[in-house]
Amino acid sequence: MTIEVKNLVKKFGTFAALDGVDLKVDNGELVALLGPSGSGKTTLLRIIAGLDWPDSGEVSFNGEDALAQGARERNVGFVFQHYALFRHMTVFENVAFGLRVQPRAVRKDESSIRARVKELLDLVQLDWLADRYPSQLSGGQRQRIALARALAIEPRILLLDEPFGALDAKVRKELRKWLRSLHHEINVTSIFVTHDQEEALEVANRVVVMDKGKIEQIGSPNDVYERPATAFVHGFIGESIELPVQVADGVVRLGDRPLRLAAEGVASGASKLFVRRHDMLVGAPGSGAFEGAVRHVRNFGPVQRAEVALFDGETIEIDAPRDKELSVGERVGLDPRRYRIFTA
Amino acid sequence: MTMQIADSVSLSTPDAKARRHAVAAGENLRTEPRAVRIAIISVAVLFLTVFVVLPLVVVFAQAFSRGIMAYVAALSEPEALAAIRLTLLVAAISVGLNLVFGLVAAWAIAKFEFKGKTFLISLIDLPFSVSPVISGLVFVLLFGAQGYFGGWLRDHDIQILFAVPGIALATTFVTFPFVARALIPLMQEQGTQEEEAAISLGASGLQTFFRVTLPNIKWGVLYGVLLCNARAMGEFGAVSVVSGHIRGETNTMPLLVEILYNEYQFVAAFAIASLLAMLALITLIAKTILERHLDEGHDSRDH
């Protein structure tokens, strides 16, 4: 099932939740909508599901107008952040719900329903919980049951709204891997919303980065990380050093000091220089584009994180390899291995 | 007297959390000297005895003052039986109507956003803030011989005032808030996600309501119905205005109690009153049980 969204606009009062969104999702893809809260990603997901309606724009499934159908007819599986399991029903009945409410003409008989529910509970590896009530399950279990319930209707599309948002870090990581392998197994076109970049980059085939109701970039996880299209994407994904610079005739200035950085093709004016923390190479004083003094060093994990006060007043954080230990007070030269300049 | 009991039952709302907090706070504040504590508790006990327990005892004492035979005889009077029948009928009609109205109103308020919602919520509370006598008078103004629809009703030979429809209307109006009030906070707290999930799974509106919404609020519905019923059976003011006091026809139990009392038939008056008092006691017990279920509903919520 392909999903196509064209020029979608949705306003809540004067706040534009979606401000002209275009998106195409191919059959069998697993796409992440990534953005800070208020970026419109959940609104987009709810409109695709039919739980909200756009002010203008188009949504089509396989070329068919989806907005002509209500949520009920769209055959879309939706998984909610807070599970939304039916609290008065057992796990079994929760999963069976979608099968039981089908019109009589197409409804399966009781034994096929039982078989199908059993199959789904096996799929999410929770068949032993069939007789429990949602309140007796852990968060991770509830979310897996919610997923099984959504899959029961053999949805054409699976939509997940911050599926792991309410879970603790360890369970999130497990479920992430599990979701990816599950998608591999059932291969249904899926979109999930997240504000967690790690989750988006790790699980999705393609990442859609959103901000303020607009799509900033669509690309593979590698693309959005390595080749961010806008200042927002560079700042939002991965950890970046951000410096306000002036560009004039191919010369980049920080304060009034020219930096030895090439800036071909960058329009003149106020700009922002982005460098990944680990792309800032440490050398002897005078060796790089920047000069500074180490203020603070934290040694943990594979890199040492140093706070460096640049001579023109800015303070930045860099990740340096641990082969040469930095010490507080040391003067260093810094040279960005890779950098991007975006017009501010 | 009996009406007071029924009214005091109906005024509290199912706010379990607030109650629990009050209990917790009470424990923290238990630092006063022993004498003060005893004094305060004594005042409370004395107050309850005089204003709640004593009236209840008096009702039953008076009812049985000439022995059980006189009590049974008083209740078997045709007039008494007619009043009991009418009261049950009116309660059934008004509880039935308010169940439907209350469900619809609470559903609309809790599950949808629309303009004028705050106004609608205040409107639902109107019967609580208006004196029942005024509520009754409104219907007299509307349907009385000199009222807006009086002429039309007379031409079509429809009797509303001084008949069952008028009594049922007045009672329904006065008891309107109970079901809606019991359900609105409950439904607001539960949100709309389960309904959205049901619809995205292919359920129709009715299937969603009967399979998801209603099971989630059933204890709240029973709670509202219980309080609505207690008030409907005990309603005096509004009914008194519209009933016309036709003996054996339009007297409900509370009205009959007053009439019999004014005629110095104390045993008969208190016999009927004792039935209303028993209704109040049963309501209290049922209310306690329902509140426990409502509390459990709160506790087992997803966190």
Task: Describe the structure in your own words.
The complex is a heterodimer of chains A (344) and B (303). With 344 residues, chain A is α+β, with helices and mostly antiparallel strands. Chain A folds into 2 domains: 3-233, P-loop containing nucleotide triphosphate hydrolases (Rossmann fold, 3-Layer(aba) Sandwich), CATH 3.40.50.300; 240-343, OB fold (Dihydrolipoamide Acetyltransferase, E2P) (Beta Barrel), CATH 2.40.50. Chain A is 24% helix and 37% strand. Chain A contains 8 helices and 20 strands. Chain A has helices at residues 41-49, 91-100, 110-123, 139-152, 169-186, 197-203, 221-226, 231-236, and strands at residues 3-12, 15-25, 30-34, 56-61, 64-65, 76-79, 157-161, 189-194, 206-211, 214-219, 240-248, 251-254, 257-262, 269-276, 280-283, 290-300, 303-310, 315-321, 331-336, 340-343. In chain A, the strands form 4 sheets. Chain A has a 6-stranded mixed sheet, with helices on both faces. In chain A, strands 13-12-11-14-20 form a 5-stranded antiparallel sheet. Chain A has a 5-stranded antiparallel sheet with strand order 15-19-16-17-18, with no helix packed on it. The model of chain A has no long low-confidence stretch (mean pLDDT 91). By secondary structure, chain B is mostly helical. Chain B has helices at 2-11, 16-28, 34-63, 67-76, 78-111, 117-129, 132-143, 150-155, 164-174, 177-190, 193-200, 205-234, 237-243, 253-262, 266-299. Chain B has 2 domains: 2-53, no CATH class; 64-302, Orthogonal Bundle (MetI-like fold), CATH 1.10.3720. In chain B, α5 (78-111) packs parallel to α10 and α5 (78-111) packs across α12 (205-234). The longest helix of chain B is centred in the N-terminal third of the chain and has 34 residues, at 78-111. Chain B is globular. In chain B, 80% of the residues lie in helices and 0% in strands. The A-B interface holds A 49-51, 70-72, 74-78, 80, 82-89, 97-98, 101-102, 133-135, 142, 146, 149-150, 152-153 and B 193-194, 196-204, 207, 211-212, 215-216, 300-302.
